[in-house]
Structures are given as C-alpha cells and as structure tokens.
Amino acid sequence: MRKFKNSSEYYDYIANMYDAMYEGTYWNIAKKQIVFEINKYLPTLSDKHVLDVGCGTGFWSAWANRKGASVVCVEPSKNMIEKAKVRLKSVLSNEVDGRIEFLNCFAEDIGSYYPLDGQFDVVFLLGDVLSYVQDIHRTMKNIQKAAKKGAFVFGTVDNYYSYVKDVIVYGPWDDYEYLEKHQRLTIGSEFGTFEAHPFKPSELDELFEAYSFEVVELTALASFPSLELSIKYGRHLINEAEHLFFVAQKN
C-alpha cells in the first residue's frame, strides 16, 4: 500500500473519489450533527466572516455561504481545492464572486497568503484538520490571530482512545509504542496511508487554553446510527468514539 508523506498528498490522490467515500449512514449523521451544533451557537451566519481551514471539496464552505457568510477557503491539496471551486461555482452560481476566496496553502502558512488581523467570526477545523497538520502550534497561532474576540471555532479530531482500541484489537503492539513515543499513528484507506495525531479530550482543552480559547463543548461524533441519540448521548462517549467534535470560543 502506498504511504504518503502527509495528508495533503493523500487527499490530492483521492480528490476525484473523496465525496463518494464520505457518504453512508455514519457520515450523513456526522454532517447533520455538526449542522445541529453550529446552529445551536450561531443560528444565523448572515454577514459573518468564516475561515474554513482544510475546506476539502468545499462542502462546509458552500453550506456557510448559503447561510449568508463570506468564506475564505484554505486547502493544501491542489486537486481538492479545484474540486471546491467547481462545487461552489456550480451550487452558488455568481454569488461566489467576492464572497468566497480560495487559498491553496497549508494551515501553518495562512498568514503568508492572507492578512490574519482578527477579522473572522467563525473558524472551521472540520475534517480532523488539527489531527492532520504537520505543526499544530503554528496552525493554532494562525487561528488565534485570525479569530475575533468571541469568535467560535468548530472542529473535529481523531480520538486517541479509539486509536488505542484499534491497536489492542488489531495490533501490532509496536503501533502502541510508536503512538506513545511520537503521538502519531498511520491511518488511511485502501488508497494509501499517512500519519495523524489523535487527541485526548484533556489535550484539546489544554491546547485551546494555551491560545486564548475555551472549549465550550466536546462530544462524540455520530456515536449512534441515529442523529437524535448521537446528539443526546455523545458527550458521554468521548472516550470511545472514533471522532470528537468540539466548539471553542475566543476569550
């Protein structure tokens, strides 16, 4: 199996297949749960300025724009951001002009391409962005600079405890030793693999606190084959779920 140097190379390779890979019950519930959670904190995005880091093929950028937001889409994979441009121009027609901007760059380098002067009301880190970046702290510095006081960050990450469970069930034990030493583990699909960083719930709290944010909600993502149950019981399953969803607010 092909091993990619980083996640952007992997997503560059699967760009044409990406949307089809994220269909099915689990991902449909995950998307609906994320929509529910965002709407809980921000019932409207009208006139909001959104930074969508790791925008992929543009699903969440299009969603935010339809709700009235202007969006800056950041994506390191050239093939993925080209898909995003096609999606948004197809779905939103001429409304894209002036209200959507695209940056083909790594999350760590946003400040070199766009002024990060505290102008964003909302930051998306959906699609496990913090798990996939190469430098978490450079990324967080950019998020801190970009966000206004009171701004919300909505994101997902891979769950450390789910990784440990997979190592115990599937092995080999060397993977656990590597995880503990490097805080990274190989993930992917039949199309290839790359290394990612899983988060413990307490680690998320500490990370965001260090950059002037407070995690105001943390829950398991799509923990049941039911949206209602996932919403109701997700906060009780943060040590079991494959992915965690978090909401943080800038102090």
Shape: globular
* Arithmetic mean of pLDDT: 93
- Structural class by SSE content: alpha/beta
Spatial strand arrangement across the major sheet: 3-2-1-4-5-9-8
**Extended strand count:** 9
Fraction of residues in helix: 40-55%
Strand portion: 15-25%
- Tally of helical segments: 12
Biggest beta-sheet profile: 7 strands, mixed
Distance between the termini: 44 Å
Low-confidence regions:
none
What is the chain-wise order of helices and strands? HHHEHEHEHEHHEHHEEHEHE
Rg, nearest Å: 17 Å
Give a concise summary.
This protein has 251 residues and is of the alpha/beta class. It is 43% helix and 23% strand.
Question: Could you explain how this protein is built, in words?
Answer:
- The chain has 251 residues and is of the alpha/beta class.
- It has twelve helices and nine strands.
- Strands 3-2-1-4-5-9-8 form a seven-stranded mixed β-sheet, sandwiched between helices. It has a two-stranded antiparallel sheet with strand order 6-7.
- α5 links the parallel β2 (70-74) and β3 (100-103).
- The radius of gyration is 17 Å and the shape is globular.
- The model has no long low-confidence stretch (mean pLDDT 93).
Secondary-structure blueprint of this entry?
Layout: H1 7-14, H2 18-21, H3 25-41, E1 49-53, H4 59-66, E2 70-74, H5 78-92, E3 100-103, H6 110-113, E4 120-125, H7 129-132, H8 136-146, E5 147-158, H9 160-170, H10 173-182, E6 185-189, E7 192-196, H11 201-210, E8 213-220, H12 227-233, E9 243-250
Parallel strand pairs: 1-2, 1-4, 2-3, 4-5
Antiparallel strand pairs: 5-9, 6-7, 8-9
